[in-house]
Write a sequence for this structure.
């Protein structure tokens, strides 16, 4: 997660350039973690990584973005008692980050 955060702050950095080809694998791994729901902490961190992956907007297809939108909407609107508050907070961050990328806004 720290690597994604660092890459998203400097688009000319080596970190950003080196993750260009791998960000979709990271996004897919995050979705697997979310679907398997191993524990609330892993799910919340995976959602945070999905949010940070928006910095790689050129790699994210419209279909993948729609999948992310659907999941974030479900995460925010979930009233399931097992849903951790951290998940709600991280999913809410997604909507604020989307506004930084005109392609998605």
């Amino acid at each position: 997660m720290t690597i994604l955060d660092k890459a998203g702050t400097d688009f000319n950095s080596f970190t950003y350039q080196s993750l260009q080809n791998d960000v979709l694998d990271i996004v897919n791994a995050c979705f697997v973690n979310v679907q398997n729901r191993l524990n609330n902490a892993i799910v919340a961190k995976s959602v945070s990584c999905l949010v940070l992956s928006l910095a790689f907007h050129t790699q994210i297809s419209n279909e993948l973005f729609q999948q992310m939108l659907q999941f974030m909407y479900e995460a925010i609107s979930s009233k399931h008692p097992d849903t951790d508050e951290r998940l709600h907070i991280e999913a809410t961050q997604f909507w604020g980050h989307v506004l930084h990328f005109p392609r998605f806004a």
About this structure: The radius of gyration is 13 Å. The helical segments are 2-9, 14-19, 23-36, 40-52, 62-77, 85-98.
